[in-house]
Amino acid sequence: MERSNFRILIVDDEKSFTLLLSRILQDAHYTVKGITDPREALSIVDSFHPHLVITDLKMPAMDGISLMEQVRAKQPETDFIMITAFGTVEAAVDVMKRGALDFVSKPLKDPDQLRIAVSKAFERQGLLRENELLKSETLEGIPPFDVLFDGMEQVLREIGDVAPTDATVMLYGETGTGKSLLAKVIHHLSGRKGPFVDINCAAIPENLLESELFGYERGAFTGATSPKPGRFELASDGTLFLDEVSEMSSTLQVKLLKVLQEKTFERLGSLNTIRTNARVVAATNRELKQLVDIKKFREDLFYRLNVFPVTVPPLRQRKEAIPAIASYLIRSLSARLGKAPLPLREDTHQSLLSYSWPGNVRELENVLERALIVSRGDYLSIPPLLESQPAPDEADTEGGDLKSLERAAIERALAKTGGHRKKAADLLGISLRSLHYKIKEYGITD
User: Looking at per-residue confidence, does 42 or 227 come out higher?
Assistant: First the structure.
């Protein structure tokens, strides 16, 4: 958690002292709100959601212990630091027995005393958040977080910070890294009551994508025999995930920009303006900034989408996570296929670790599914398709740019499938239309 996301509520009936503490902590880059009346403090707890409350122990309207008890009834994990002019050992022991994390004396002799006490609360809340995230598992088929984020601890922290906000999130990463799963995680952790709605901007023909996003009225075009809401409407109070947003046409980019700026849109064939509060999460396997530079993506839309960028690492950069991910996938796939979850031999483990996985987790899942289907005996056998494909040198992958890696992955998939484009698209986990587009873009001959 960033310090700017750590919210502190200061409650002291002496306004000058409240201002002093606020200034010290704001200078340390915390988000601080100062209140002189504890009753007013109680009224803003539900909207401000403080991680930490620093309150005077003795106040006319309500004492600090009563304030702590009432805030904890609403938000049990909120930490408290007590301010006391009676800085005796007995007073300190008593407030900490009642649940306070620490106490500071009044008047404040050394600002470092306050900074150290707040730092302890900041570290504790960060650990609580990470533990909560790691134990979480959604109801939408998302793997346990200790599996999903194995080797992606930085991504976990970033998602944990941004999920409760309304900020637009831009997920960058190669095909098959799990960007759609992370979008669902963001929605799950956001606490939004509306649904998670997704759309693949590359999988739907351009002439239909606009109506899918914004909906249409009866008679808007041939075949529109009844009105239909679009994805922005369906995602009301929830999250709209725009996958492969880089494939959106320039015309639709303009319309998407308007929605992000004004939070309004119109159905096709209608003049009625509809407001939307859908939170937008977008994803791409391309470098949007490069597309902006060559005028294939609008710069103003880029800045609207790129509010909080998150880069998802490829599987080859977190190979230590492969055993845990493979074990989880084997259990899930076995249940789906109605087969026993066979263990992997040690030499098979080594095959998984030595391969570069150009198709990332999605390719690993495909390989394991084929293995479960064809395996006989007591162990899971990896198909020769994988074992016969030499892993490229690290220099070919780690140092290459995203376009080079993507082109190489497509060429390998086409080679594996004998040039069968539908099978290659399935192997890569992308639509056939997307594969056709990329083959043309990269000038690949198959």
Answer: 42
Percentage of the residues of the chain whose pLDDT score is greater than 70: 89
Most confident option among 11-25, 127-141, 422-436: 11-25
CB 217 within 8 A of CB 210: no
Confidence band for 260, pLDDT divided at 50, 70 and 90? very high
279 forms bridges with which residues in the sheet? 239
- How sure is the predictor about 300, in pLDDT bands with cuts at 50, 70 and 90? very high
Burial of 143 (0-12, 13-18, 19+ CB in 10 A): buried
Please give the radius of gyration of the chain, using alpha carbons only, rounded to the nearest integer.
27
Is 279 in the same domain as 230?
Answer: yes
User: Are 197 and 244 within 8 A, CB to CB?
Assistant: no
Domain edge (last residue) among 311, 343, 367: 311
Q: Are residues 166 and 235 in the same domain?
A: yes
Cα–Cα nearest to 36, from 20, 23, 57, 55: 55
67 and 102 housed in the same domain: yes
Do 301 and 354 belong together in one domain?
no
- Please give the C-alpha separations between residue 63 and each of 16, 52, 263, 285, 311, in angstroms, as whole numbers: 19, 17, 44, 55, 47
Helices 421-428, 402-416: inter-axial angle, 10-degree rounding: 130
The reply to whether 365 falls in a domain is yes
> In this structure, is residue 144 part of a structural domain?
no
Indicate if 171 and 66 belong to the same structural domain: no
Upper half-sphere CA count for residue 204 (Cβ side, 13 Å)? 18
The pLDDT mean for the chain works out to 85
Q: Domain range holding 338? A: 315-393
What would the pLDDT profile of 338-380 be if each residue is shown by its tens digit? Answer: 888 888 877 777 788 888 898 899 999 998 998 888 887 788 8
On whether both 187 and 42 belong to a single domain, the answer is no
pLDDT at position 107 is 83
Q: Which two tokens stand for residue 236?
A: 């009301």
User: Is position 143 within any domain?
Assistant: no
Strands (DSSP E) found in 186-260: 196-200, 215-216, 228-229, 239-243
**Residue 107: is the preceding peptide bond cis (ω within 30°)?**
yes
What is the SS3 assignment for 311? strand
